[in-house]
Design brief:
Helix content of chain B: 25-40%
Number of helices of chain B: 9
Shape of chain B: globular
Number of strands of chain B: 10
Strand order of the largest sheet of chain A: 4-6-12-8-11-7
Number of domains of chain B: 1
Structural class of chain B: alpha/beta
Structural class of chain A: alpha+beta
Strand content of chain B: 15-25%
Subcellular location (chain A): Cell membrane
Largest interface: A-B, 25 and 32 residues
Membrane topology (chain A): Multi-pass membrane protein
Strand content of chain A: 15-25%
CATH topology of chain B: Rossmann fold
Strand order of the largest sheet of chain B: 6-7-8-3-9-10
Radius of gyration of chain A: 34 Å
Oligomer: heterodimer
Distance between the termini of chain A: 27 Å
Family (chain A): Belongs to the ABC-4 integral membrane protein family.
Keywords (chain A): Cell membrane, Membrane, Transmembrane, Transmembrane helix
Main location (chain A): membrane
C-alpha cells in the first residue's frame, strides 16, 4: 500500500503542486515569524547584556509606591526619593567597589539642523557624563562636556543630523530651550540608542539641575574590584547604604530582567504574527481538502480495484493519508527554507524602514524546525482525512462499472440544516452580544462570530446557486462562454464553495478591520476635534507632561486671546482616587465645546464641572457638593456647577487652576489649549513656536494636525493588517488556480468537443476566466458581507464605551475589495485558461 | 455510386484530400500515419472509413475535418483549402461548415438536450432556423426530451442529440468518429438510420470512421485504409462484403 501511495504522489505531481504551495506558504509564514522574532530578541538580549557589562551592582532608590511608578528614568509621575551624593560616596568606599558612577537622566529632545525633533520623541534621552572620562561613553571625537553650555551627543545621532564637535545644538528637557555647544561625540551600547533613539550627555551637575534633581541621582552603578563577585559586592553595598531607602540589584539580574522584558514584548509580536500565519494555514486546508477530494474522485476505479483485490477500508484511507504525509513533508521542508528567508528578509525590511535593529546571527532553533514540520504535516493530513474516509467508502464493485462513479451525490439536506443552525445561532449570539456592554460582550461576540463563520462555511454550497445565478444577467453579455461559465461554477457546489470560502475568510477579516478602523478613526477624530474650540493644542512630543513654564510663556505671547492648561492632579474623593483636571476657569468655556446635560459650564472658585460618567458613578447632580482630599492632604468642599458629556480626551472633574495650584508641589500640564486672534494660520503657529523658543520637544497642533495624526495612525495600522492578510489572499488565489486547473482537467473532453464544434481559443479562455471570476466574486461578496456584519457588531460593542462612535461604511474600500476579488479571479484564471485553450483537441475527444 | 451527375466537379465534392501525409516524429522514431492519401467525399454521399487499428483512419478523418494538422498535401472543405488556415479560421470553418458526432457522445452535462443541439449556433451567435431545427428534432424523435439533461437520457438518446446537433447548423459535411461504438446494436442501428436518412432525404454529406462492418454497411461507399494508405474501396457495401475484405487485411497485417 505504501508503494501505491508513493507512486500516486509522483503521478500527480502537477496537481499536488498547488497544495504543496499552499501549505508551504503557511509554513513559511510560521517559521519566518519564529525565526524573525527569535533572531531579533536574541540580538536585543545580546546588546542589552553588553549594556550591563559595566554594571556589577546597580543601586536604586527603593520604590515606595509600588512598581507601577517606575517606568524608566526621569518619569515625573510618582517619582521616588532620589539617591544622594552621600549614597554615592558610601558606595564608592565599599571595599569591593572599583568604581561608582552616579547616573541621572531624562527626556531630552534634540533638534536637527532643520529645527525638527530628531527621532520620534519616545526615545530621546539625556543623561550625565561623569568626570573627565566616563568609561560608559567612549569619546570618538572632542572632549567631555563641562558646565551648562556644553553637551555631548551619541555618534549615531551625530551621523544622522550632521552635527559635529563645535556646532551649537538646540535641545530641550522639559520646557525652556537650551543651545549648548557640542564638545564631544561618543559611542554607546545603550539599547535605546541601538533602537533608533538619541542620547545627549551633560556634565553631572548640569544634568542634575536639568532633570530636576539637584545633587541627587537616579541610580548608582558600581563596578567590582577583581576578585569580588557581584553577589559579594551587593552584600557589601546593602550593609553600607541606609536601609529602606535604597535597593541593590546585580548586573546579571538586570540583564536577566531586561532579557525577560524583551522576550515578553517579542512574544506579543510573535503571537499576533502567528495568528495571521494560522489564518493562512486555515485557508490552505480548504485547498488541500479540495485537491484530495478530487484525487480520490479521479481514482475511484483504482481504489475500488484495491478494495476488490482485498485491501481493507483502513488500508485505503491510510494510502490517502500517506500521500498527504508525503505532500505535507515536502511542503513543510520547502516552507521552512522559505521561512528562514522571510525571517532574514523581515529583519532587513525593518532596517530599511528606519528601525535600527541590532546585528546578530539568524537564529533557527530546533523548536522552529519542529514547529514548521509539525504544522505542515498535521495540517495536510487533517485536511486529507475526510477525503481519505470517503475513499474508503468506495464499494469494490465500482471497479467493475465502466463509468467513473460520481463523487458521492449525497444530498446537501443534512449539511444545509446543520449550516443553518450554526449560522442562526451565530447571528443570534452576535446580536445578543451587541446589546451587552463593552467587556462583557467580547467573549460571546467572539463565540458568535466563530459559529457564524462555521455556519456560512457549511452553507456555502447552498448559497452558491442563488448567488451565482444572480450574476447571470452580467454574464449574458458574454454569450455561450458566459452561460457555460456560470453553469460550470455551480456544477460542483462543494468544490466551488471550498474555493470561495478560502477567499471569503481573507476578505471577511479585511473588510471587518476596515469597517471598524474607519468607524473608530472617525469617532476619535470627531472626539478630538469637535470638542475643541481652541486653535492650537500644545503638548510634549513624547506625551510627557509640559512644564508650567510653557503656559506662562504662551500667556505673554502676542496674539493669544485665550488659553487654558489641562493639568492633571490626583485626589481622593469618598475613598477612591480620582484625577482632577485643572483648567483656566475663565477661558475653558471658549476653548472647548462640550455638550452640557445639566446646570451650566462654569468653572471658578469651588464651582466645578463633572462629566456625566463620573457624575453618575457618584450620583451627583448639578448643585451637589462633595469633599475632595488633595495630594498635599488638605481637603476642600466643591460644588458641581454643571454636568457635561465627556469624551476620551476630556473628562473627569474640571476645576480652576487657581484653586488647585496651592495644593500642587510639582504641577504638570498634559496640554495647553490656545486660541489666537484671527484663528489658526501659519503665522500664528509660527509666533507660538517662536515664543516657545522653537522647542523641538513641544508639539503645536491645530485641529487638522490632530486629525491627520489620528488618520496616520489608523492608516499605518490598517496597512500592516492588509499586508499580513495579503498572505491569506495569496493562498486563496492558489486555491482558485487549483480548482480551475482541476476543472479544466476534468472537463478536458468537453473542452475538446467545444473546440471541435467551433468554440475558438478565445472563447475557451473566456469561459474559464468567467468561471473563475464568478467563483471569486462569490467568495468576495460573502466575505465583504460577513466583514461588514462583524465590523458593525464589533462597533456596537465599542459604541457602548465611546459616545461618538458611529458606523462608517467605507463604500470606496468595499468596492475596491470587490475589485480585488475580481482581480484574484482573473489572475488565478490566467494559467488554467491558457491550458484549456491549448488543450489537445484530439486527445480530448478521442475516448480512451 | 456517384450521387450527383448534375453538379459541377467542384460542387460535387464536399471534401477532398490530395496526397495527404501525416508524419509523426523524426528520423529513427518517425511514424508515417498517412502516406500520400488522396480521397474525395462527394456531396450527399455517406462514406465509411474502415481499417485495422493504427491504419490511420482516425487520423485521416481528423485531418480532413480540420481537427489536426498534416505534414504535406492538401485538404479542401468545399472551396476552402485547409492547409493555409490559422487556428482561428479553422475553428470558424469547423463551426460553420462541419458537424461532428463522437463515440463518447460528448454532450455538455450542464445543458439541456435542446441547448446542446443549438450549441454550435449559439457559439456562432446565430439563431437557429426554427423550421429546420424542428424537422431535425422530429427526425431523431427527441421532441419530448428537449428539456432533459444528458444524464437523464439513455446512451442512444444522447447520441441522437449529438446527431441533431451535427445536423442543426446544416453543415457542409458531418464527420462521425465511431458514432455507434458506445451503443447497443438497436440504438446503434437507429443512429445509423438517421445518418443515412439525412443523406438520402436532406442531401447531407456524412463521413464516418468505424470498425464495425454492420455500421459500414449503412454507408454508400466504404474506404479501406491500411498502414496509412487507401487500399480498397467498396460501393454499396453489405456487412458480409465488408467483413470479407477486412479479414483479408487482417491476415495480411499479421503475416507482414
Amino acid at each position: 500500500m505504501l508503494r501505491t501511495a508513493l507512486r500516486n504522489v509522483f503521478a500527480h505531481k502537477a496537481r499536488l503542486l498547488m497544495t504543496v504551495l499552499a501549505v508551504m506558504l503557511g509554513v513559511a509564514f510560521v517559521s519566518g515569524t519564529l525565526v524573525f522574532t527569535n533572531t531579533i530578541s536574541r540580538a536585543y538580549q545580546k546588546s542589552s547584556a553588553k549594556g550591563f557589562d559595566r554594571v556589577d551592582v546597580a543601586v536604586r532608590p527603593a520604590h515606595q509606591e509600588g512598581p507601577a511608578h517606575r517606568e524608566g528614568r526621569g518619569h515625573r509621575a510618582g517619582r521616588t526619593a532620589d539617591l544622594t551624593q552621600a549614597d554615592l560616596d558610601r558606595s564608592a568606599r565599599v571595599p569591593g567597589a572599583a568604581s561608582a558612577v552616579g547616573v541621572v537622566g531624562g527626556f531630552t529632545a534634540l533638534a536637527g539642523k532643520d529645527g525638527k525633533l530628531v527621532g520620534n520623541g519616545f526615545q530621546s534621552q539625556g543623561g550625565n557624563y561623569s568626570g573627565a572620562r566616563d568609561p560608559r561613553y567612549p569619546l570618538v571625537s572632542g572632549t567631555a562636556p563641562h558646565g551648562a553650555g556644553e553637551v555631548a551627543v551619541d555618534s549615531e545621532t551625530a551621523r544622522r543630523t550632521g552635527y559635529r564637535v563645535g556646532d551649537t545644538i538646540r535641545l530641550s528637557v522639559d520646557g525652556p530651550v537650551l543651545t549648548p555647544r557640542i564638545t564631544g561625540v561618543f559611542t554607546t551600547d545603550d539599547g535605546n540608542v541601538a533602537a533608533g533613539g538619541s542620547l545627549a550627555l551633560f556634565d553631572t551637575p548640569t544634568a542634575q539641575r536639568l532633570f530636576g534633581r539637584p545633587g541627587a541621582y537616579d541610580e548608582i552603578d558600581v563596578t567590582a574590584r577583581p576578585g569580588t563577585g557581584q553577589t559579594a559586592l551587593k552584600a557589601q553595598l546593602d550593609r553600607a547604604l541606609p536601609h529602606g531607602s535604597t535597593e541593590t540589584t546585580t548586573g546579571r539580574q538586570l540583564a536577566d530582567d531586561q532579557a525577560r522584558t524583551i522576550a515578553s514584548s517579542m512574544s506579543g509580536l510573535r503571537q499576533s504574527l502567528l495568528v495571521f500565519a494560522g489564518i493562512a494555514l486555515f485557508v490552505g486546508t480548504f485547498i488541500i481538502a479540495n485537491t484530495f477530494t478530487m484525487l480520490v474522485a479521479q481514482r475511484t476505479r483504482e481504489l475500488a480495484l484495491l478494495r476488490a483485490v482485498g485491501a481493507s477500508r483502513r488500508q485505503v484511507t491510510r494510502s490517502v493519508l500517506v500521500e498527504a504525509f508525503v505532500v505535507g513533508v515536502a511542503a513543510a521542508v520547502t516552507g521552512l527554507v522559505a521561512g528562514i528567508g522571510i525571517g532574514a528578509g523581515l529583519r532587513s525590511l525593518m532596517g530599511s524602514m528606519g528601525a535600527t535593529v541590532p546585528d546578530g546571527p539568524l537564529v533557527v532553533t530546533p523548536g522552529t524546525v519542529l514547529a514548521a514540520l509539525a504544522v505542515g504535516v498535521l495540517v495536510t493530513m487533517l485536511a486529507a482525512w475526510l477525503p481519505g474516509r470517503r475513499a474508503a467508502r468506495i464499494p469494490p464493485v465500482a471497479a467493475m462499472s465502466s463509468v467513473h462513479a460520481q463523487a458521492s451525490t449525497r444530498s446537501l439536506v443534512l449539511r444545509n440544516t446543520l449550516g443553518a443552525l450554526f449560522a442562526a445561532a451565530g447571528v443570534a449570539v452576535v446580536l445578543a452580544a451587541t446589546t451587552m456592554n463593552g467587556t462583557d460582550g467580547q467573549a460571546p461576540m467572539g463565540l458568535g462570530a466563530v459559529l457564524l463563520i462555521i455556519g456560512v462555511f457549511v452553507l456555502t454550497p447552498l448559497l452558491s446557486r442563488p448567488l451565482i445565478a444572480a450574476a447571470a444577467p452580467l454574464l449574458r453579455g458574454f454569450g455561450v462562454a458566459g452561460r457555460l461559465a456560470r453553469q460550470n461554477a455551480v456544477r460542483n457546489p462543494r468544490r466551488t464553495a471550498a474555493t470561495a470560502s478560502a477567499l471569503m475568510i481573507g476578505l471577511t477579516l479585511i473588510t471587518g478591520m476596515t469597517v471598524m478602523a474607519g468607524s473608530l478613526q472617525q469617532s476619535i477624530d470627531r472626539m478630538a476635534s469637535s470638542a475643541i474650540r481652541a486653535d492650537y493644542v500644545v503638548s510634549m512630543a513624547n506625551g510627557n507632561p509640559l512644564s508650567p513654564e510653557v503656559e506662562r510663556t504662551l500667556r505673554g505671547t502676542p496674539g493669544v486671546t485665550a488659553l487654558s492648561p489641562l493639568r492633571n492632579a490626583p485626589a481622593r474623593i469618598g475613598g477612591g482616587t480620582e484625577y482632577l483636571t485643572g483648567v483656566d476657569g475663565r477661558a475653558i468655556g471658549s476653548l472647548t465645546d462640550l455638550a452640557v446635560d445639566e446646570g451650566s459650564f462654569t468653572v471658578g472658585g469651588t464651582r466645578v464641572v463633572v462629566d456625566s460618567g463620573t457624575a453618575a458613578s457618584h450620583r451627583w447632580k448639578a448643585g451637589s457638593g462633595f469633599t475632595v482630599v488633595y495630594e498635599d492632604g488638605r481637603t476642600q468642599r466643591l460644588t458641581v456647577a454643571g454636568v457635561y458629556r465627556g469624551n476620551d480626551m476630556m473628562r473627569g472633574i474640571m476645576l480652576d487652576t487657581a484653586v488647585l495650584a496651592p495644593h500642587q508641589k510639582d504641577p504638570a500640564d498634559m496640554q495647553v489649549m490656545v486660541k489666537t486672534a484671527g484663528g489658526p494660520s501659519a503665522a500664528a503657529k509660527d509666533r507660538l513656536a517662536k515664543a516657545l523658543g522653537l522647542n523641538p520637544a513641544v508639539k503645536i497642533q491645530d485641529k487638522q494636525d490632530i486629525s491627520d495624526g489620528i488618520a496616520r495612525m489608523f492608516t499605518l495600522m490598517l496597512n500592516m493588517l492588509y499586508g499580513l492578510l495579503a498572505m491569506a489572499v495569496v493562498v486563496a488565489v492558489l486555491g482558485v488556480i487549483n480548482t480551475l486547473a482541476m476543472s479544466v482537467f476534468e472537463r478536458s473532453q468537453e473542452i475538446g468537443m467545444l473546440r471541435a464544434i467551433g468554440l475558438d481559443r478565445r472563447g475557451v479562455k473566456r469561459m474559464v476566466r468567467l468561471e473563475s471570476l464568478v467563483i471569486s466574486l462569490f467568495g468576495g461578496v460573502l466575505g465583504i458581507g460577513l466583514g461588514v456584519f462583524f465590523g458593525w457588531a464589533a462597533g456596537e460593542l465599542l459604541g457602548t464605551r465611546m459616545a461618538t462612535y458611529e458606523l462608517v461604511l467605507p463604500w470606496g474600500r468595499m468596492a475596491l475589495f470587490l475589485l480585488l476579488a475580481a482581480g484574484v479571479g482573473i489572475l488565478a484564471a490566467l494559467w488554467p485558461a491558457r491550458r484549456a485553450a491549448r488543450l489537445n483537441m484530439l486527445a480530448a475527444i478521442t475516448s480512451e | 455510386m456517384t450521387t450527383s451527375s448534375l453538379a459541377g466537379p467542384t460542387t460535387a465534392v464536399a471534401a477532398r484530400a490530395t496526397e495527404l501525409s501525416k508524419i509523426y516524429g523524426q528520423g529513427e522514431t518517425q511514424v508515417v500515419a498517412l502516406d500520400q492519401v488522396s480521397v474525395d467525399f462527394r456531396r450527399a454521399e455517406f462514406t465509411a472509413i474502415m481499417g485495422p487499428s493504427g491504419s490511420g483512419k482516425s487520423t485521416l478523418m481528423h485531418c480532413v475535418a480540420g481537427l489536426d494538422t498534416f505534414s504535406s498535401g492538401s485538404v479542401r472543405i468545399g472551396d476552402t483549402e485547409l492547409g493555409s488556415l490559422k487556428d482561428k479560421q479553422l475553428t470558424r470553418l469547423r463551426r460553420d461548415k462541419i458537424g461532428f458526432i463522437f463515440q463518447a457522445f460528448n454532450l455538455l452535462p450542464t445543458l439541456t438536450a435542446l441547448e446542446n443541439i443549438t450549441l454550435p449556433m449559439d457559439i456562432a451567435g446565430r439563431t437557429a432556423d426554427r423550421q429546420w431545427l424542428d424537422s431535425v428534432i422530429a427526425m431523431v424523435g427527441l421532441a419530448d426530451r428537449l428539456g432533459h439533461r444528458p444524464a437523464q437520457l439513455s446512451g442512444g438518446q444522447q447520441q441522437r442529440v449529438a446527431v441533431a446537433r451535427a445536423l442543426a447548423s446544416r453543415p457542409e459535411i458531418i464527420f462521425g468518429d465511431e458514432p455507434t461504438g458506445n451503443l447497443d446494436s438497436r440504438s446503434g442501428a437507429e443512429v445509423l438510420g438517421f445518418l443515412r436518412n439525412s443523406v438520402r432525404e436532406l442531401g447531407q454529406t456524412v463521413v464516418m470512421v468505424t470498425h464495425d462492418p454492420v455500421a459500414a454497411a449503412y454507408a454508400d461507399r466504404v474506404v479501406f485504409l491500411a498502414d496509412g494508405r487507401i487500399v480498397d474501396e467498396v460501393h454499396g457495401p453489405t456487412a458480409d462484403s465488408v467483413l470479407d475484405r477486412m479479414k483479408r487485411f487482417d491476415a495480411k497485417g499479421r503475416t507482414s
